């Protein structure tokens, strides 16, 4: 399978932190799924790695003590990642709403507030909100050298529609 692109999410997190400091007007227009969200919605994530509206609030960058980064990701209804892998795995902790997690070649799993998903290294997968409900999760993404994700192809509308019929 051809890898479309690789991105260092730490660099993306830094860019988003910089953008957040300079875009107060954009922050004012963003609302959380509800008033009880643990963290603010954050900044919009790039359309080439997410379908629909997804936002990142960085929580903890990689540093000398932690070989991972952590962020709160908000998915509006219908939003999702593209297919991707992590060379050292990822953990998702759903804090709000309902959504889906699917490994390539396996049935999609419904996920909701309180679920913890442990994604093994190099496992092709996607995750995101259901078609009619937003979802928020904390993503803890490990590094292997300086890489923590390989972005692949988008989840097709047919793949996503089939999951949401369940």
Strand content range: 35-45%
H/E element order: EHHEEEEEEEEEEEEH
N-end to C-end Cα span: 28 Å
Number of domains: 1
Protein name: Quercetin dioxygenase-like cupin family protein
Pfam families: Cupin_2
InterPro entries: Cupin_2, HNL-like_cupin, RmlC-like_jellyroll, RmlC_Cupin_sf
Keywords: Signal
Model description:
- It is built from 3 helices and 13 strands; from the N terminus they run E-H-H-E-E-E-E-E-E-E-E-E-E-E-E-H.
- By secondary structure, it is an alpha+beta fold.
- The longest helix is centred in the N-terminal third of the chain and has 14 residues.
- The strands form 3 sheets. Strands 2, 4, 5, 8, 9, 10, 11 and 12 form an 8-stranded antiparallel beta sheet that branches.
- 34% of the residues are buried.
- The chain has one domain: Jelly Rolls, CATH 2.60.120.
- Pfam families: Cupin_2 (PF07883).
- It comes from Mucilaginibacter phyllosphaerae.
- This is Quercetin dioxygenase-like cupin family protein.
In short:
It comes from Mucilaginibacter phyllosphaerae. Strand 4 and strand 5 form a beta hairpin.
Features:
single chain, 166 residues, alpha+beta, Jelly Rolls, 8-stranded antiparallel sheet, 3-stranded antiparallel sheet, 17% helix, 37% strand, globular, RmlC-like_jellyroll, Quercetin dioxygenase-like cupin family protein
């Amino acid at each position: 399978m051809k890898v479309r692109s690789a991105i260092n999410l730490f660099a993306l997190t830094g860019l988003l932190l910089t953008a957040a400091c300079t875009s107060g007007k954009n922050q004012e227009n963003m609302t959380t799924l509800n008033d009880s969200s643990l963290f603010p919605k954050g900044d919009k994530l790039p359309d080439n790695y997410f379908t629909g509206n997804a936002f990142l609030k960085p929580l903890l960058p990689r540093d000398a003590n932690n070989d991972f980064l952590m962020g709160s990701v908000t998915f509006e209804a219908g939003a999702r990642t593209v297919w991707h892998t992590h060379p050292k795995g990822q953990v998702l902790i759903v804090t709000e709403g309902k959504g889906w997690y699917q490994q390539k070649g396996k049935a999609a799993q419904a996920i909701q507030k309180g679920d913890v998903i442990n994604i093994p290294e190099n496992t092709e997968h996607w995750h995101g909100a259901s078609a009619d409900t937003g979802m928020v999760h904390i993503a803890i993404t490990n590094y292997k050298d300086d890489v923590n994700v390989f972005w692949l192809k988008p989840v097709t509308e047919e793949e996503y529609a089939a999951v949401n019929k369940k």
